Amino acid sequence: MEKKSLEDWLLERSFKGVKGVVDVSSFGGPTKEYQIKLDPEKLVSCGLSIGEVEQQIANNNSKGGGSFIEEGAQQINVQSMGLYTSVQDIEDTVVKSQSGEVISFREIATVSQGANIRLGQIAKPPHRADGVIVDNPDTVEGIVLLQKGTTQTPSCWAFTRKSRS
């Protein structure tokens, strides 16, 4: 999960800053997400519906646009990707205020960090120096698309190869 986060948030953005790179596609690895498991009995006792809970999550974790920045011939969109940064942020979110009592997600749900549902997997069977094949059933891979006719320096290619494992 950590390799996937590095690929998505650091390497992909770094590659897109290289002259001649058109796009970067990431594959493999579990994607980190926050998961909220609601307790139906507690929802009923607090007089809450799933719709109300869903609306509070959306209200408290909204995305925001920030226009764009021009960099050379490209435009980079600026946006905030949500306000939650930890499980505790979600647990502390107020869902409802009832008779002076505040109800937060901590009271009606179990919040955790886990992996998004996988739709596929990438494997990599590397060969050791002694010829033995080591099975790595899950790896993270990125494909960098280059503009036709652009020249690449050896350091750029070396960086690409290192990031694929």
Your description of this structure?
With 165 residues, this protein is of the alpha+beta class. It has 2 domains: 79 residues, no CATH class; 84 residues, Multidrug efflux transporter AcrB TolC docking domain, DN and DC subdomains. The protein is built from 6 helices and 8 strands; from the N terminus they run αββααββαββαββα. The chain has a two-stranded antiparallel sheet with strand order 1-8. The protein has a two-stranded antiparallel ribbon with strand order 2-7. Strands 3-4 form a two-stranded antiparallel ribbon. The longest helix has 15 residues. The chain is flat. 9% of the residues are buried.
Looking at this protein, list some descriptive labels.
165 residues, alpha+beta, 2 domains, two-stranded antiparallel sheet, two-stranded antiparallel ribbon, 32% helix
Quick description:
The protein is 32% helix and 32% strand. The chain has helices spanning 2-16, 40-46, 50-60, 87-91, 105-108, 154-163; strands spanning 21-28, 32-38, 64-71, 74-80, 94-98, 101-104, 109-115, 140-146.
Globally, the shape reads flat
Q: What pattern of helices and strands is seen along the backbone?
A: HEEHHEEHEEHEEH
Structural category: alpha+beta
Into which percentage range does the β-strand content fall?
A: 25-35%
Low-confidence stretches: 154-165
Gyration radius over CA: 22 Å
CATH fold node name of the largest domain? Multidrug efflux transporter AcrB TolC docking domain, DN and DC subdomains
What is the share of helical residues?
A: 25-40%
CATH top-level class of the largest domain: Alpha Beta
Terminal CA distance: 13 Å
Mean pLDDT, to the nearest integer, reads 80
Give the domain tally. 2
Number of helices: 6
> What's the name of the CATH homologous superfamily of the largest domain?
Multidrug efflux transporter AcrB TolC docking domain, DN and DC subdomains
Question: What's the main sheet like?
Answer: 2 strands, antiparallel
Q: Judging by the overall fold, what is the CATH architecture of the largest domain?
A: 2-Layer Sandwich
The largest beta-sheet arranges its strands as: 1-8
* Number of DSSP strand runs: 8
